[in-house]
């Protein structure tokens, strides 16, 4: 297995990766990073979620930005605000020891005025955005994408599943024709092929084995119970593993609320996370989970 030193990364980035505990690159990182650093070509990365795609494009993006050039040079488009925030946090970590690279995350559900003030105050070298909020800011003349030289479409298949097809077309039309386009996706449906054919020129394609298990050390177990007994079964499971922290996925928002309320009545530390919560409420729940204030997060697939 390769090491990050062999991928052509700068000393400041290698120092950060060592601090973050990154020892060896994942398959998508090992095959993507050298290409993105040196090839100067459009790029398609196909790999499942959880294989390290954010670092695969985020590290080269940080390396290629010129902090001395006062313009937005890179754009990352993500389907959800949570993913956008995660990408923004990672990019800031990768650039910790480099000359000041300004990175701003913009997304719906938060104050657009605050985001516009941040855009006006400093030139943002990299913008991470959800599609709707990005288009709104461009229409308000708050974001200028005319000097962008790299666009990353992350979780591209998920963006299409969420109905962002026209938004992606519109966003790409705001950017220069000569830019690099890096597309990362778990799958390659026909609509992604259309984007590739329309907006990309002779892309490099890296495909990580789609059958590859993300983590081979996970053991899967299940218990069959009647619907009316699910709550009691879950409570018994939590009693058996009192130090466990976990996520319980439910199909609907109502299910998450019912399960969370049932557990709270039984004095378990639980809370619900679903799409009808405001951004502030989602952030509060996630902060509580990260700080171990919540033992069990009851969530829909927004998590």
Work out the oligomeric state of the chains in this entry.
Answer: single chain
Q: Please give the count of helices.
A: 12
Low-confidence sequence ranges:
none
SSE order in H/E notation?
HHEHEHEHEHEHHEHEHEHEHE
Distance between the termini: 32 Å
Helix content: 40-55%
Percent strand: 5-15%
Write a concise keyword list for the protein shown above:
about 300 residues, alpha/beta, seven-stranded parallel sheet, three-stranded parallel sheet, 12 helices, 10 strands, about 15% strand, globular
Verbal overview:
With 303 residues, the protein is α/β, with parallel strands linked by helices. Helix 2 packs parallel to helix 3. The strands form two sheets. A seven-stranded parallel beta sheet has the order 3-4-2-5-6-1-7, with helices on both faces. Strands 8-10-9 form a three-stranded parallel beta sheet, with helices on both faces. It has helices at 11-19, 27-38, 53-64, 81-94, 112-121, 131-139, 156-161, 165-174, 190-199, 230-240, 253-265, 279-290; strands at 43-46, 74-77, 103-106, 126-129, 150-153, 180-185, 204-207, 246-249, 270-273, 296-299. Strand 9 (270-273), helix 12 and strand 10 form a beta-alpha-beta unit.
